[in-house]
Write a structure and sequence with these properties.
It contains 10 helices and 15 strands. By secondary structure, it is α/β, with parallel strands linked by helices. The two termini are 28 Å apart. The C terminus is likely disordered.
Length: 322
């Protein structure tokens, strides 16, 4: 990446902080494109070597300006808060769907070498507006290489990223500090346990190996939300801290699905990565029974405090991403 110019849309979030530091260490020039000037100001204080551009991916003209001279784009800008989007689905369409079209068109017009877009497990068999718009985003991005294109497009898809903004670990830490009960949805709900470093590694994998149109998934362990909450209270010295069960929120799944049964038929596995080939260029090598899926329920399950706590230790300072 030395000498390359990289644009990160929505770059002031958890992923943006971590990948920006990694890119700078490799000698890249990094541009952060987002619409929140306060978060940009805070990020600039922490990482002054970055360049910042105020803008929205809904704005095609401003996005075209941001793409000038860019070699690679990591597209992380999105509306992703599930309950809020349930109440305002049209806004999610404007950002997650129409914004993705703008990113693709601007990247091709600017001659960008590769675009990697960040997606979510909620795009798989979506049951909420956020997942539906992200599923469309995936289709838009991965369709770009169906015909000749100068730019290589790919997506990465992951579930819960531990310690990221809006995830449950910072919430549990805050509840512990304030003396409030830890709130879990239902005890048997499972979530993948992916670290931010794992998510960055996944993006690099997609950027360097994609032929165009693939979706990349990194295999990860999972645990129940109850076991995670229990580990947190033990780890931070409050083993008797109360845990309240509050029920499943609107639009929320009990188990995360990262590959559904139809994708498994055109997927390959290069440990620890699944690569889902596009429908217009199927290259599946997995020999699995029809109906097989990859979910947080059937992946490696962590149940003891030591194993879950070791992953928590790998997160780093969650305060930076809260």
């Amino acid at each position: 990446m030395r000498g390359a110019t990289v644009l990160i849309t929505g770059g002031t979030g958890s992923f943006g902080h971590r990948v920006a530091r990694s890119l700078l260490e490799q000698g890249a020039e990094v541009r952060i494109y987002s619409r929140d000037e306060k978060k940009q100001w805070e990020m600039a204080r922490a990482i002054p070597q970055l360049r910042f551009m105020i803008g929205d991916i809904r704005d095609r003209r401003r996005l075209a300006e941001a793409m000038r001279g860019v070699d690679y784009v990591f597209h992380a800008a999105a509306l992703k808060q599930v309950p809020a989007i349930e109440a305002a689905p049209v806004e999610a369409v404007k950002t997650n769907v129409l914004g993705a079209i703008n990113v693709c068109e601007a990247a091709q017009a600017a001659g960008v070498k590769a675009v990697v877009a960040l997606s979510t497990d909620k795009a798989v068999k979506p049951v909420n507006a956020m997942g539906m718009t992200k599923a469309l985003m995936e289709k838009i991005v991965t369709s770009q290489n169906a015909y000749a294109a100068r730019t290589t497009f790919a997506c990465v898809r992951y579930g819960n990223v531990m310690g990221s903004r809006g995830s449950v670990i910072p919430l549990f830490l805050e509840q512990l500090r304030k003396g409030n009960p830890l709130t879990v949805t239902v005890p048997h709900m499972t979530r993948f346990l992916l670290t931010l470093d794992d998510s960055v590694e996944l993006v690099y994998r997609a950027m360097t190996t994609a032929e165009g149109g693939e979706v990349f998934v990194r295999k990860a362990p999972a645990c129940t939300v109850w076991d995670l909450a229990d580990t947190m209270r033990v780890k931070y010295g409050a083993p008797e801290h109360p845990i309240d069960v509050i029920g499943v929120r609107p639009g929320e799944k009990v188990h995360e699905v990262l590959l559904h049964e139809y994708e498994m038929q055109r997927a390959s596995f290069d440990d620890p990565y699944f690569v889902i080939s596009p429908e217009y260029r199927p290259q599946g090598t997995l020999e699995v029974a029809v109906g097989t899926e990859y979910t947080s329920e059937n992946t490696e399950r962590l149940t003891d405090h030591a194993a879950i706590g070791a992953l928590i230790d790998r997160i780093g300072l969650v305060e930076e991403y809260a």
